[in-house]
Design goal:
Blueprint: E1 2-6, H1 12-21, E2 25-29, H2 33-40, H3 51-60, E3 64-67, E4 75-78, H4 93-102, E5 111-114, H5 122-133, E6 142-145, H6 155-161, E7 164-168, H7 171-181, E8 189-193, H8 194-225, H9 229-236, H10 260-266, H11 272-303, E9 308-312, H12 327-338, E10 343-347, H13 362-368, E11 371-374, E12 391-394
Parallel strand pairs: 1-2, 1-4, 2-3, 4-5, 5-6, 7-8, 9-10, 9-11, 11-12
Antiparallel strand pairs: 6-7
Helix pairs in contact: 1-3, 8-11, 10-11, 11-12
The chain binds ligand SAJ.
Residues 149-152, 204-205, 208, 212, 245-246, 248, 251-253, 255-256, 316-317 line the site of ligand SAJ.
Length: 401
């Protein structure tokens, strides 16, 4: 079986590698020639533990080849980005462009699957596009949607072990997609229709965003009430059926902070809680920045000098080096813009250097700072001894004090 993956990003490339590892002949396609060149040299262009060795293996065996143009295959997977236009309107133009690129290659019996997170109805739209341009293929090819749910940093394990939800435009399409994935997925393959599968992905991430918003709202309430929110959540979670998540400095990344808008933009009148959760998680980053600025002003009034302040963490979540859409980055930038010539030490232990921020070692910053702001719960921060002579703003529960 020959399979064509359209998109060699954080999901497309690892999935192409795992499929190739399981004996499937793979052509990986990307519009970025650098990505294609690096992949064919067996060099990873993304950071993912254990993936480098697998890539070298499947490239040297000829099982995986990368190209900027698709080749005739038996199955085609759309794993391209689905970003936003300005006003949180989902943009499926990459999915459509990738689909148009392979439509001329389609033949009877082929399988076409979208994996990209997409607004409900996208798979039906692409099926219509295919059959409008290739009417002779109507009911002769199989079309399905299958979202991924892998956690960056644990992709190899989760691609094989996670359950998958697979929804075809009809039963036989679902069967065909399940037959493909069962070649390398050990998790259970759950069958449904394509709209439900599209909504399932959005639901998973929106539910997490709402849960995080609840924790963030609690942190604002506790700050005003003079209650330790970390202790409160730990105690509430002792209840056998309560599982409150952790407050943070906001919600980052290009999944949880993005996917809920796929629902609110299509169902604006119905999705009240989902929309409010998004507002709360965005507001939390603003609230943290305000808190830092007020603390700095208070310090200056009391000590008649500007404080040295350590902004601890820039990544969008603990123990990773990905700064994309990171609230910590937003807060640090806002603080730097607002206070002239205060000494601001920026810390990100998972990144060696940054083209905007001058980075300071986390231990050095902690020692030098009058005010220490914990933005991301990186494990290394937890070894820093609590120093009650410092003013500590702990937005992510390092000390849970
Ligand atoms: N966060 C909190 N408090 C928490 C948990 C997370 O503030 O208790 C924040 C994190 O700091 C981060 C953001 O939320 O800024 C998202 O973190 P995440 O742990 O949800 O990680 P992601 O976005 O890398 O992965 C999510 C996962 N989805 C779910 O857990 C439902 C992953 O399984 C998905 O595959 C991924 O989104 C995706 O690609 O959609």
């Amino acid at each position: 079986m020959k399979v064509c993956f359209m998109g060699l990003g954080y999901i497309g490339l690892p999935t192409a590698i795992i499929a190739a590892k399981h004996g499937i002949q793979v052509i990986g396609v990307d519009i970025n020639p650098k990505v294609v060149e690096m992949t064919n040299q067996g060099k990873l262009h993304i950071v993912e533990p254990g993936m480098q060795e697998l890539l070298q293996e499947v490239v040297s065996s000829g099982q995986l080849k990368a190209s900027t143009t698709p080749e005739i295959s038996d199955a085609y997977f759309m794993v391209v980005p689905t970003p936003f236009k300005g006003n949180h309107e989902p943009d499926i133009s990459y999915v459509e462009a990738a689909t148009r690129a392979i439509i001329p290659l389609l033949k009877e019996g082929d399988l076409y699957v979208i994996e990209s997170t997409s607004p409900v109805g996208t798979t039906d739209k692409m099926a219509k596009l295919i059959f409008d341009l290739r009417p002779e293929l109507t009911d002769k090819i199989y079309i399905a949607y299958c979202p991924e749910r892998v956690l960056p940093g644990n992709v190899i394990y989760e691609l094989v072990c996670n359950d998958r939800v697979i929804g075809g435009i009809n039963e036989v399409s679902t069967d065909k997609a399940i037959a493909f994935y069962s070649q390398f997925v050990q998790g259970t393959l759950h069958r449904t229709n394509c709209k439900t599968a599209e909504m399932c992905k959005l639901t998973e991430n929106s539910s997490r965003d709402v849960q995080i918003a609840f924790a963030n709202e609690l942190s604002l309430i506790c700050d005003k009430a003079g209650i330790n929110v970390w202790e409160l959540i730990e105690l509430a979670n002792k209840h056998p059926r309560v599982n409150i998540l952790q407050p943070g400095c906001g919600v980052g990344g290009h999944c949880i902070a993005v996917d809920p808008y796929f629902i609110t933009s299509d169902f604006p009148m119905e999705s009240k809680i989902i929309a409010t959760a998004r507002e709360m998680n965005n507001y939390k980053a603003f609230w943290c920045a305000e808190k830092v600025q007020n603390t700095m002003l208070k310090f200056e009034l009391e000590h008649h000098r500007k404080p040295t302040i350590a902004m601890m963490g820039l990544a969008f979540k603990p123990d990773i080096d990905d700064l994309r859409e990171a609230p910590a980055k937003y807060i640090t930038t806002k603080v730097m813009q607002s206070c002239n010539n205060a000494d601001i030490l920026v810390v990100e232990p998972n990144v060696q250097e940054h083209n905007v921020f001058k980075l300071t070692d986390y231990k050095e910053a902690y020692i030098k700072a009058d005010i220490v702001v914990f933005l991301v719960a990186h494990s290394v921060f937890k070894s820093l001894p609590y120093d009650d002579k410092k003013i500590i703003l702990d937005f992510c529960g390092i000390y849970k004090k």
